[in-house]
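Could you help me review a protein record that somebody else here produced? What it holds is a sequence and that sequence's fold in token form. I have pasted the whole thing underneath without changing anything:
=====
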Amino acid sequence: MKKTVKDFDLKGKKVIIRCDLNVPMTDNVIDDDTRIKASVRTIKYCLNCGAKVILLSHLGKVKTEKDKKTNSLYPVSIRLSKYLNREVYFCPETTGPKVIEMVNELEDGDVLLIENTRFEDLDGKKESNCDSKLAKFWSSLGDIFINDAYGSCHRDHASVTGIPQYLPSGLGFLTQKEVKKIDNILDSNTHPFVVILGGKKVDDKIVLIEKLLECCDKLIIGGAMSFTFLKVLGYNTGKSIVSEEHLDFCKRMLDKYQDKIVLPKDFVVLDKEEVITKKIEDFTSEDIGYDIGDKTVKLFIKEFEDAKRVVINGPMGMFEDSRFAIGTKKILKALDKNKIKVLVGGGDTASAVNNLGFEDSFYHVSTGGGATMKYLEERKLVGIEVIDNEKA
């Protein structure tokens, strides 16, 4: 078992908490603060124990100086202040004298949020490459390291796996909860066990698809990723997204698990800006499937209506556009209505759940898409493996 935040005497200590405050923003305005709210419990616990709290997080991708303007954590510090009911001090630097000065000025019960860790990627990708000097600098700021950034636990980054190499470390409440919930779904011996995969790419989910096919009863594939499988079966997929380099993989899966894999029968397409539904066999070379059609919705619901547990990752269509959100919404509504134990695998799926009004409907909605997929594949994450173990 890994140590947790409760295993430490925090009073008077400088506690570095790696959070996942990577929230979507438009023009520096936060669009969804779910991840901020998810971080509050661990932060409050440390504050109530009399700690000085230092927060680290990344936000978006930072590849150029221009990216820094749209990926600052400053708006997050303002929102976090609201949920903590106290000022969250913000350091606009990631390293250097200013950071050290602000840390040294902290008193028990103070909170300091340091600027986006990925700003360090502009200088040789020090964060993403787990630079040891950077990890040592950040570790020098505190006494204890707590990883509550479940959504980043699959990344071998300086702020995730680097710091705990130099400090006593434990897991925060969010990370503990995520792992416990996923383990519960995977370890349950209830059947039928159904997996629903959607989204755009097969590429990111190849290992996951094979792993899940070994243990699930049905694998339902919707969204754009279904077109690679459909092309293997000889259908004209028009201009829909197809991963040409993974056609052989899809053929191998269809040959081996033809009784388990369920694919769409029809799609919503645009015909001169008119939204219509077409059977896959009627596709022309110009068609693009933007959502699953009604026949497919009914087929999918029939396949999972008696399921005891379901893992869903990826929307059924381009749900950001209301014209193409109907398929995803109907699938989520049916899962909710049938009272199935559902694990929602973070990322776009979590956004769809929240945006379409199902945020309180399911057993668990993960805050980390990539981390959840990696954990489903391997049952371990590098950011958790490096944390100190409890003494036997």
Q: What stands out?
A: The domain at 5-175 is CATH 3.40.50.1260 (Rossmann fold). The two ends are 9 Å apart (CA to CA). The chain has 15 helices and 17 strands. The first helix runs from residue 34 to 48.
